[in-house]
Amino acid sequence: MSAEHSIGVLDRSKPPMPSPNPQVAFPKFQEHRLSNGLRVFIVENHEQPIASVALYVKGGSILEPIEGLASISADLLTKGTTSRTATEIAEQIDFVGGSLHASSSWDSIAVSVGVLSKFLPIGMELLADIALHPTFPDEELDRVKLQRVAGLKQAKADASFLADSIFTKLVFPDHPYGKQASGTEETVVHITKADVEHFHKRTFGPASGFIIAAGDIEPKDFLVTLEGTFGVWENHVAPVMHFPAQRLQSGMKVALVEKEGAVQSAIRVGHLGIARSSEDYVSLHILNMLLGGYFNSRINLNLREKHGFTYGARSYFDTRIEPGPFVISTEVSTSVTMRSVEEILSEVRRICLDEISEEELDMVKKYVVGSFPLSIETPQQVASRVATIVLY
User: Fold this and answer.
1) Which residues, including other chains, have CB under 8 Å from residue 96's CB and lie 6 or more apart?
2) Do the Cβ atoms of 299 and 346 come closer than 8 Å?
3) 260: which DSSP letter?
4) What angle, rounded to 10 degrees, do the helices at 193-203 and 138-155 form?
5) What is d(CA 305, CA 307) in angstroms, rounded to the nearest whole number?
6) 207 burial class (0-12, 13-18, 19+ CB within 10 angstroms)?
7) What are phi and psi of 217, to 5 degrees?
8) pLDDT for the residue numbered 17
9) pLDDT tens profile 116-125
């Protein structure tokens, strides 16, 4: 007897029903404090002999007095300390097969190291050195500035870069979020070593920092190592994160940037959104998934599947310490620019005015719940989630 006859007649006109979503609990993590008050969060996972540690300090581009200063400061952290040159730092982390990175975002600067767990003391020594004792060498600063200016000049040929830049300024006319985090050609060339040193001194300290450690880590031994590296960090007054109240802009504004010879239009539609701490975050996350947050969203199915205007269209809330932007983003052929904007606005009106069916809402909720376990599979992913909790 065939397998099909043994289980009954299959209805191949309908897709099979999905299995129930597994019950997934967020992994446990520990919280500690060093003698100087620095907060430490540890996510133990001994499946593989690797460990990753990241130091976060609150206050990235939102606190910079000069556009581009935060990101350039982060770029320079690995380029020399009071006891190591940039070459020596690179050679020492390479020798143990590890990685060392520094980066900035709107709300924080992060310095991270990843190594085999047996080399964790070496990794922590390097991490502490670049975070606490950077020298920002003049030759490295000049090189970073030259590269940044060249990149900004090249970016002007990118319609998406121009659209993002102008959209940001329209949404945040009187707020630090309206700045260009990468800087401008005019601001970058005027950044000095003194600017970088002052910004580092202002933002870096145990009062505004915290450490997230994940992987094959023994908490007791790790905390002893931390006391020897970061415990000597002198406390400081955390910078004040207080800014003018933001308001939704009244009326619809349209900005057109003509780019001669362009075959595509970069479209950005949106407005002021919410802060990451908003009590509406989860509800709006689900609503946005339905509108433009995943492949089967209304906007993507309309512009891509129904009309063939684009390879993809999406929407998102860029949530930050302060209310960030809500953005609908796509690139389309110039010949269908106006029709694409009309379809986007039509979908926005529809989701605001019409009822959402239980079937459609249930599909989105199942997608979000079903995707969640994939976002906490590795210790590094869990650590990133913990960092979001602490930062916001």
Assistant:
1) 115, 116, 119, 122, 123
2) no
3) T
4) 90
5) 6
6) middle
7) -130, 135
8) 75
9) 999 999 999 9
* Cα atoms in the Cβ-side hemisphere of radius 13 Å centred on 387: 27
**Residue 167: φ, ψ to 5°:** -60, -45
**Residue 320 dihedral angles phi and psi, to the nearest 5°:** -140, -170
Contact 123, 113 (CB under 8 A): yes
- Intra-chain end-to-end CA distance of the chain, in Å: 60
Q: How would you list the strands of the sheet with 313-317, edge to edge? A: 264-272, 325-333, 313-317
The encoded tokens of residue 152 equal 């900004």
CA distance 107 to 45: 28
What residues contact 85, with CB distance under 8 A and at least 6 apart?
A: none
Residue 382 contacts residue 30 (beta carbons within 8 Å) = no
∠ at Cα 65 (241, 238), nearest 5°?
35
**CA torsion 223→226→231→233, rounded to 10°?**
-150
Beta carbons of 118 and 215 less than 8 angstroms apart? no
In this structure, the strands spanning 209-215 and 50-58 are antiparallel
- At 151, which helix (H) or strand (E)? helix 138-155
Element (DSSP H or E) covering residue 220: helix 219-229
SS3 330: strand
C-beta of residue 99 within 8 angstroms of C-beta of residue 201: no
With 70 as the cut, is the pLDDT of residue 5 above it?
no
Residue 105: pLDDT above 70?
A: yes
| pLDDT tens profile 157-178 | 899 999 999 999 999 998 999 9
pLDDT band at 8 (very low <50, low <70, confident <90, very high): low
Residue reference for tokens 């870096």: 204
Show the tokens assigned to 71.
């990101």
What the block records as the tokens of 220 is 């007791």
Cβ within 8 Å of residue 176, ≥6 positions away = 61, 62, 63, 64, 243
